[in-house]
Amino acid sequence: MTGWAWLLAAGAVEIVWAQSIPPTQGFTRFWPSVLCVVLCLAAVWLLAKAIESVPVGTAYVVFTGIGAAGAVLLGLLVHCDALTPARLAAVLLIVGGVVLSHAAA
């Protein structure tokens, strides 16, 4: 896999990891907590693989951008979070920041 493929995989796992946190109920539930920790480790491992060929600054910005925007979009689609102008602007700013960061590199 290329560094960018590793990075996209890492971002996807980060989105799932973020969604796995609430079911742990503050890490008081064993199996949801185990899943959360495994997903966190998987996301970091995939990010480490990406950084072997993608500059660390670029990789981290893209990784966190995918995670942040993906978590918001998943909240809209799965958890029926309200689509407000502020939330839409936030996602657009995240995506714009990632694109600008990559273009400036």
How would you describe this structure to a colleague?
With 105 residues, the protein is mostly helical. Helices cover 79% and strands 0% of the residues. The mean pLDDT is 93.
Summarize the structure.
This protein is mainly alpha-helical and 105 residues long. The chain is 79% helix and 0% strand. The chain is built from 4 helices and no strands.
Strand content: under 5%
Low-pLDDT regions: none
Shape: flat
Structural class: mainly alpha
Number of strands: 0
Q: Helix coverage percent of residues? A: over 70%
Mean pLDDT: 93
Rg measurement, Å? 15 Å
Number of domains: 1
Task: Give a quick account of the main beta sheet: strands, pairing sense, barrel closure.
Answer: none
Distance between the termini: 22 Å
The number of helical runs is: 4
Order of helices and strands: HHHH
How are the SSEs placed, and which strands pair?
Layout: H1 3-20, H2 30-51, H3 56-78, H4 85-104
Helix pairs in contact: 1-2, 1-3, 3-4
